[in-house]
Amino acid sequence: MPNIDKKDFFELLKKNKELQDIIQKEIEKNRQKDEILFAQNKMAALGEMLNNISHQWRQPLMELSSVFIPIEAKVNLGVNIELEEIKEAIQSLNQITKYMSSTIDDFRNFFATNKEIENFKLLEQINIAYKLMSASFKANNILLEIIVSKNPTIIGYKNEYTQVLINILNNAKDALIQKKVPNPKIIIRIKENEDEIILDIEDNAGGIEVFPIEDVFKPFFTYGKKNGTGIGLFMSKLIIENSMNGKLTVTNTNLGANFKIITYKTIIK
Ligand SMILES: Nc1ncnc2c1ncn2[C@@H]1O[C@H](COP(=O)(O)OP(=O)(O)OP(=O)(O)O)[C@@H](O)[C@H]1O
Ligand SMILES: [Mg+2]
To answer: Helix (H) and strand (E) counts for the chain?
Structure first.
Protein backbone atom coordinates (compact mmCIF):
# COMPACT_ATOMS: atom_id res chain seq x y z
CA MET A 1 0.00 0.00 0.00
CA PRO A 2 1.43 3.43 -0.89
CA ASN A 3 2.40 5.63 1.97
CA ILE A 4 -0.48 8.03 2.55
CA ASP A 5 -1.07 9.95 5.69
CA LYS A 6 -4.17 9.75 7.82
CA LYS A 7 -5.60 13.06 6.58
CA ASP A 8 -5.30 12.02 2.93
CA PHE A 9 -6.84 8.71 3.75
CA PHE A 10 -9.92 10.27 5.32
CA GLU A 11 -10.13 12.76 2.49
CA LEU A 12 -10.14 9.83 0.09
CA LEU A 13 -12.80 8.02 2.07
CA LYS A 14 -14.95 11.14 2.03
CA LYS A 15 -14.55 11.56 -1.73
CA ASN A 16 -15.37 7.92 -2.21
CA LYS A 17 -18.54 8.27 -0.18
CA GLU A 18 -19.54 11.38 -2.15
CA LEU A 19 -19.03 9.51 -5.40
CA GLN A 20 -21.12 6.62 -4.18
CA ASP A 21 -23.90 9.02 -3.23
CA ILE A 22 -23.82 10.62 -6.68
CA ILE A 23 -23.96 7.22 -8.38
CA GLN A 24 -26.80 6.13 -6.11
CA LYS A 25 -28.75 9.30 -6.96
CA GLU A 26 -28.20 8.78 -10.68
CA ILE A 27 -29.37 5.16 -10.44
CA GLU A 28 -32.48 6.28 -8.59
CA LYS A 29 -33.13 9.02 -11.19
CA ASN A 30 -32.81 6.44 -13.96
CA ARG A 31 -35.17 4.09 -12.19
CA GLN A 32 -37.74 6.86 -11.82
CA LYS A 33 -37.38 7.72 -15.52
CA ASP A 34 -38.02 4.08 -16.45
CA GLU A 35 -41.10 4.03 -14.20
CA ILE A 36 -42.50 7.09 -15.99
CA LEU A 37 -41.84 5.50 -19.38
CA PHE A 38 -43.45 2.31 -18.17
CA ALA A 39 -46.58 4.19 -17.14
CA GLN A 40 -46.60 6.05 -20.48
CA ASN A 41 -46.33 2.81 -22.40
CA LYS A 42 -49.17 1.30 -20.41
CA MET A 43 -51.28 4.39 -21.06
CA ALA A 44 -50.66 4.01 -24.80
CA ALA A 45 -51.75 0.39 -24.55
CA LEU A 46 -54.79 1.57 -22.59
CA GLY A 47 -55.78 3.95 -25.38
CA GLU A 48 -55.41 1.22 -27.98
CA MET A 49 -57.50 -1.17 -25.93
CA LEU A 50 -60.25 1.29 -25.06
CA ASN A 51 -60.62 1.68 -28.77
CA ASN A 52 -60.86 -2.08 -29.15
CA ILE A 53 -63.32 -2.49 -26.32
CA SER A 54 -65.64 0.09 -27.77
CA HIS A 55 -65.53 -1.92 -31.03
CA GLN A 56 -66.07 -5.15 -29.17
CA TRP A 57 -69.06 -3.79 -27.30
CA ARG A 58 -70.84 -2.38 -30.30
CA GLN A 59 -71.67 -5.82 -31.67
CA PRO A 60 -73.18 -7.32 -28.47
CA LEU A 61 -75.05 -4.07 -27.79
CA MET A 62 -76.67 -4.34 -31.20
CA GLU A 63 -77.52 -7.97 -30.52
CA LEU A 64 -79.04 -7.02 -27.17
CA SER A 65 -81.34 -4.47 -28.67
CA SER A 66 -82.30 -6.80 -31.54
CA VAL A 67 -83.26 -9.55 -29.06
CA PHE A 68 -85.91 -7.33 -27.52
CA ILE A 69 -87.20 -5.55 -30.62
CA PRO A 70 -89.78 -8.27 -31.53
CA ILE A 71 -90.93 -8.50 -27.91
CA GLU A 72 -91.34 -4.74 -27.68
CA ALA A 73 -93.31 -4.72 -30.95
CA LYS A 74 -95.66 -7.42 -29.67
CA VAL A 75 -96.18 -5.57 -26.38
CA ASN A 76 -97.01 -2.38 -28.31
CA LEU A 77 -99.43 -4.20 -30.60
CA GLY A 78 -101.04 -6.04 -27.72
CA VAL A 79 -100.12 -9.40 -29.24
CA ASN A 80 -99.81 -12.38 -26.93
CA ILE A 81 -96.20 -13.34 -26.15
CA GLU A 82 -95.25 -16.94 -25.52
CA LEU A 83 -93.42 -17.58 -22.26
CA GLU A 84 -90.84 -19.56 -24.28
CA GLU A 85 -89.99 -16.47 -26.32
CA ILE A 86 -89.36 -14.40 -23.19
CA LYS A 87 -87.24 -17.17 -21.70
CA GLU A 88 -85.11 -17.31 -24.86
CA ALA A 89 -84.66 -13.55 -24.86
CA ILE A 90 -83.56 -13.60 -21.23
CA GLN A 91 -81.10 -16.38 -22.00
CA SER A 92 -79.59 -14.34 -24.84
CA LEU A 93 -79.41 -11.32 -22.58
CA ASN A 94 -77.52 -13.32 -19.96
CA GLN A 95 -75.07 -14.69 -22.52
CA ILE A 96 -74.39 -11.32 -24.07
CA THR A 97 -73.90 -9.48 -20.79
CA LYS A 98 -71.61 -12.28 -19.59
CA TYR A 99 -69.45 -11.79 -22.66
CA MET A 100 -69.39 -8.03 -22.18
CA SER A 101 -68.45 -8.32 -18.57
CA SER A 102 -65.65 -10.78 -19.34
CA THR A 103 -64.16 -8.24 -21.77
CA ILE A 104 -64.13 -5.70 -18.98
CA ASP A 105 -62.61 -8.22 -16.56
CA ASP A 106 -59.73 -8.87 -18.98
CA PHE A 107 -59.22 -5.18 -19.24
CA ARG A 108 -59.32 -4.59 -15.50
CA ASN A 109 -56.99 -7.51 -14.77
CA PHE A 110 -54.53 -6.25 -17.32
CA PHE A 111 -54.42 -2.87 -15.62
CA ALA A 112 -54.24 -4.24 -12.11
CA THR A 113 -51.14 -2.93 -10.40
CA ASN A 114 -50.40 -5.95 -8.24
CA LYS A 115 -46.91 -6.67 -9.42
CA GLU A 116 -46.35 -10.16 -8.20
CA ILE A 117 -44.30 -12.98 -9.57
CA GLU A 118 -46.62 -15.85 -10.32
CA ASN A 119 -47.06 -18.90 -12.48
CA PHE A 120 -49.14 -18.26 -15.56
CA LYS A 121 -50.18 -20.13 -18.67
CA LEU A 122 -48.67 -18.67 -21.80
CA LEU A 123 -51.69 -19.35 -24.02
CA GLU A 124 -53.99 -17.51 -21.63
CA GLN A 125 -51.91 -14.36 -21.88
CA ILE A 126 -51.72 -14.68 -25.68
CA ASN A 127 -55.51 -14.98 -25.76
CA ILE A 128 -55.93 -11.92 -23.56
CA ALA A 129 -53.56 -9.88 -25.73
CA TYR A 130 -55.43 -11.06 -28.82
CA LYS A 131 -58.85 -10.39 -27.32
CA LEU A 132 -57.81 -6.88 -26.38
CA MET A 133 -56.61 -6.26 -29.95
CA SER A 134 -58.88 -8.41 -32.05
CA ALA A 135 -61.18 -5.60 -33.16
CA SER A 136 -58.37 -3.69 -34.89
CA PHE A 137 -56.97 -6.94 -36.32
CA LYS A 138 -60.35 -7.78 -37.81
CA ALA A 139 -60.88 -4.26 -39.10
CA ASN A 140 -57.59 -4.55 -41.00
CA ASN A 141 -58.05 -8.18 -42.09
CA ILE A 142 -54.97 -9.26 -40.17
CA LEU A 143 -54.81 -12.99 -39.62
CA LEU A 144 -53.25 -14.26 -36.42
CA GLU A 145 -52.01 -17.82 -36.55
CA ILE A 146 -50.91 -19.54 -33.36
CA ILE A 147 -48.78 -22.65 -33.78
CA VAL A 148 -48.46 -24.51 -30.54
CA SER A 149 -48.07 -28.07 -29.36
CA LYS A 150 -47.95 -27.33 -25.62
CA ASN A 151 -49.24 -24.69 -23.25
CA PRO A 152 -46.23 -23.99 -21.06
CA THR A 153 -46.32 -22.32 -17.67
CA ILE A 154 -44.10 -19.30 -17.19
CA ILE A 155 -42.99 -17.79 -13.94
CA GLY A 156 -42.91 -14.00 -13.91
CA TYR A 157 -45.13 -10.92 -14.12
CA LYS A 158 -48.09 -11.92 -16.27
CA ASN A 159 -49.54 -8.48 -17.00
CA GLU A 160 -46.16 -7.15 -17.97
CA TYR A 161 -45.65 -10.14 -20.25
CA THR A 162 -48.99 -9.37 -21.90
CA GLN A 163 -47.94 -5.74 -22.27
CA VAL A 164 -44.87 -6.94 -24.21
CA LEU A 165 -47.07 -9.08 -26.47
CA ILE A 166 -49.33 -6.09 -27.11
CA ASN A 167 -46.36 -3.85 -27.93
CA ILE A 168 -44.97 -6.35 -30.45
CA LEU A 169 -48.37 -7.14 -31.98
CA ASN A 170 -49.14 -3.42 -32.27
CA ASN A 171 -45.87 -2.79 -34.11
CA ALA A 172 -46.57 -5.68 -36.48
CA LYS A 173 -50.07 -4.32 -37.09
CA ASP A 174 -48.66 -0.82 -37.78
CA ALA A 175 -46.11 -2.19 -40.27
CA LEU A 176 -48.71 -4.37 -42.04
CA ILE A 177 -51.10 -1.44 -42.42
CA GLN A 178 -48.43 1.05 -43.41
CA LYS A 179 -47.00 -1.20 -46.12
CA LYS A 180 -50.46 -2.23 -47.32
CA VAL A 181 -49.38 -5.87 -47.30
CA PRO A 182 -51.76 -8.16 -49.19
CA ASN A 183 -52.88 -11.03 -46.92
CA PRO A 184 -51.44 -9.49 -43.75
CA LYS A 185 -50.49 -12.15 -41.26
CA ILE A 186 -48.84 -12.63 -37.88
CA ILE A 187 -47.62 -16.05 -36.78
CA ILE A 188 -46.98 -16.89 -33.15
CA ARG A 189 -44.93 -20.02 -32.48
CA ILE A 190 -44.43 -21.51 -29.05
CA LYS A 191 -41.50 -23.81 -28.39
CA GLU A 192 -40.33 -25.25 -25.15
CA ASN A 193 -37.22 -27.06 -23.94
CA GLU A 194 -36.15 -28.28 -20.53
CA ASP A 195 -36.07 -24.91 -18.84
CA GLU A 196 -36.87 -22.30 -21.48
CA ILE A 197 -40.00 -21.15 -23.25
CA ILE A 198 -39.41 -19.60 -26.63
CA LEU A 199 -42.09 -17.47 -28.21
CA ASP A 200 -41.64 -16.25 -31.78
CA ILE A 201 -43.82 -13.53 -33.28
CA GLU A 202 -43.31 -13.18 -37.01
CA ASP A 203 -45.15 -10.88 -39.42
CA ASN A 204 -45.11 -10.66 -43.18
CA ALA A 205 -44.60 -6.89 -43.43
CA GLY A 206 -41.15 -7.09 -45.07
CA GLY A 207 -38.95 -6.60 -42.01
CA ILE A 208 -37.29 -3.82 -40.04
CA GLU A 209 -35.56 -1.17 -42.13
CA VAL A 210 -33.18 -0.09 -39.41
CA PHE A 211 -29.46 -0.79 -39.22
CA PRO A 212 -28.18 -2.05 -36.87
CA ILE A 213 -31.50 -3.73 -36.19
CA GLU A 214 -30.92 -3.67 -32.38
CA ASP A 215 -31.43 0.12 -32.47
CA VAL A 216 -35.18 -0.49 -32.31
CA PHE A 217 -34.70 -1.31 -28.61
CA LYS A 218 -33.20 2.09 -27.80
CA PRO A 219 -35.40 4.48 -25.81
CA PHE A 220 -37.28 6.98 -28.01
CA PHE A 221 -36.12 5.24 -31.17
CA THR A 222 -38.91 5.43 -33.70
CA TYR A 223 -38.65 5.18 -37.46
CA GLY A 224 -41.13 5.78 -40.25
CA LYS A 225 -44.18 6.42 -38.05
CA LYS A 226 -46.29 9.52 -37.64
CA ASN A 227 -47.02 9.24 -33.94
CA GLY A 228 -44.43 6.81 -32.66
CA THR A 229 -42.91 7.57 -29.27
CA GLY A 230 -40.22 4.89 -29.48
CA ILE A 231 -40.98 3.58 -26.02
CA GLY A 232 -42.67 0.28 -26.93
CA LEU A 233 -39.71 -1.97 -27.64
CA PHE A 234 -37.42 -0.29 -25.12
CA MET A 235 -39.98 -1.00 -22.42
CA SER A 236 -40.56 -4.53 -23.69
CA LYS A 237 -36.86 -5.34 -23.47
CA LEU A 238 -36.68 -3.89 -19.97
CA ILE A 239 -39.63 -6.02 -18.83
CA ILE A 240 -38.33 -9.28 -20.31
CA GLU A 241 -34.63 -8.86 -19.55
CA ASN A 242 -34.60 -6.91 -16.26
CA SER A 243 -37.81 -8.01 -14.55
CA MET A 244 -38.02 -11.57 -15.87
CA ASN A 245 -34.37 -12.39 -16.53
CA GLY A 246 -35.24 -13.48 -20.06
CA LYS A 247 -34.19 -12.38 -23.51
CA LEU A 248 -35.92 -10.31 -26.21
CA THR A 249 -34.30 -10.26 -29.65
CA VAL A 250 -35.30 -9.51 -33.22
CA THR A 251 -34.24 -10.69 -36.67
CA ASN A 252 -35.53 -10.15 -40.17
CA THR A 253 -36.77 -13.26 -41.96
CA ASN A 254 -37.70 -13.52 -45.62
CA LEU A 255 -41.28 -12.60 -44.66
CA GLY A 256 -40.80 -9.82 -42.14
CA ALA A 257 -39.74 -9.11 -38.57
CA ASN A 258 -39.40 -11.95 -36.09
CA PHE A 259 -39.37 -11.12 -32.38
CA LYS A 260 -38.17 -13.83 -30.02
CA ILE A 261 -39.05 -13.82 -26.32
CA ILE A 262 -37.19 -16.31 -24.18
CA THR A 263 -38.33 -16.81 -20.60
CA TYR A 264 -37.76 -19.44 -17.97
CA LYS A 265 -39.95 -22.03 -16.35
CA THR A 266 -38.62 -21.92 -12.86
CA ILE A 267 -35.68 -19.76 -11.94
CA ILE A 268 -35.68 -16.02 -11.64
CA LYS A 269 -32.23 -14.98 -10.44
N1 LIG B 1 -42.83 -5.60 -36.97
C2 LIG B 1 -42.13 -4.55 -37.39
N3 LIG B 1 -41.91 -4.33 -38.72
C4 LIG B 1 -41.20 -3.26 -39.14
N5 LIG B 1 -40.66 -2.33 -38.32
C6 LIG B 1 -40.84 -2.48 -37.00
C7 LIG B 1 -41.57 -3.59 -36.45
N8 LIG B 1 -41.57 -3.48 -35.12
C9 LIG B 1 -40.86 -2.36 -34.82
N10 LIG B 1 -40.42 -1.76 -35.93
C11 LIG B 1 -39.61 -0.51 -36.00
O12 LIG B 1 -39.07 -0.28 -34.69
C13 LIG B 1 -39.36 1.05 -34.27
C14 LIG B 1 -39.42 1.11 -32.77
O15 LIG B 1 -40.59 0.46 -32.27
P16 LIG B 1 -41.22 0.90 -30.88
O17 LIG B 1 -42.39 0.06 -30.61
O18 LIG B 1 -40.15 0.92 -29.84
O19 LIG B 1 -41.63 2.42 -31.11
P20 LIG B 1 -42.82 2.95 -32.02
O21 LIG B 1 -43.73 1.86 -32.44
O22 LIG B 1 -42.21 3.78 -33.10
O23 LIG B 1 -43.56 3.90 -31.00
P24 LIG B 1 -44.51 3.45 -29.76
O25 LIG B 1 -43.78 3.97 -28.55
O26 LIG B 1 -45.76 4.13 -30.02
O27 LIG B 1 -44.58 1.98 -29.74
C28 LIG B 1 -40.64 1.40 -35.01
O29 LIG B 1 -40.78 2.80 -35.15
C30 LIG B 1 -40.46 0.71 -36.36
O31 LIG B 1 -39.70 1.49 -37.26
MG1 LIG C 1 -44.53 0.47 -31.00
So the answer is: 5, 7
